[in-house]
Design a protein that fits this description.
The protein is an alpha+beta fold. It is built from 6 helices and 5 strands. Helices cover 49% and strands 32% of the residues. It is elongated, with a radius of gyration of 21 Å.
Length: 152
């Protein structure tokens, strides 16, 4: 009986410690990637406005849904989306024009809230979404450069 009490006490202590540590984990996670596109900034922004077309493909795989464009300008695009079941993510695309190319930086900021279990989930977001952001940037790069060659 004493062994069972000690085992239950140990499990409860570990659970309490994990919960306590969870409160000190970051409440927001920022992921970013960048690429250089050999096209004009107008072509890149036009392609990014069709964001639902290339992000929605992976909706079931990673849980991104309900993408809305909040604001766009000639050198940036701001979107908001739902990630997983309960999290909001803000995705920003910033463009810096050069001579015949555009540097595109994509930043995803995920708000995890105050739930300590959600904050543990945040530790895995880079592995889950990092490759997704890079893949979408590469797809955008190929599509914009292909469009740019056809127009030329």
């Amino acid at each position: 009986m004493r062994l069972i009490k000690n085992l239950v006490g140990f499990i409860m202590m570990v659970g309490f410690l994990m919960l306590l540590i969870g409160f000190f984990l970051p409440g927001q996670v920022r992921l970013s990637a960048e690429t250089t596109v050999g096209a004009s900034s107008e072509q890149v922004i036009d392609h990014l406005k069709m964001i639902k077309d290339y992000t929605g493909k992976n909706e079931r795989d990673i849980g991104i849904r309900d993408i809305k464009i909040l604001r766009n300008s000639p050198d940036s695009l701001y979107t908001v989306t739902s990630v997983g079941r309960d999290y909001k993510a803000y995705i920003t695309y910033n463009l810096q024009s050069a001579k015949d190319s555009v540097k595109v930086k994509s930043t995803m900021l995920v708000d995890l809230g105050m739930n300590p279990v959600s904050r543990y989930y945040g530790l895995m977001l880079d592995a889950r979404f990092g490759s997704f952001i890079e893949k979408n940037l590469q797809e955008m790069k190929l599509a914009c450069e292909k469009k740019g060659r056809k127009a030329a």
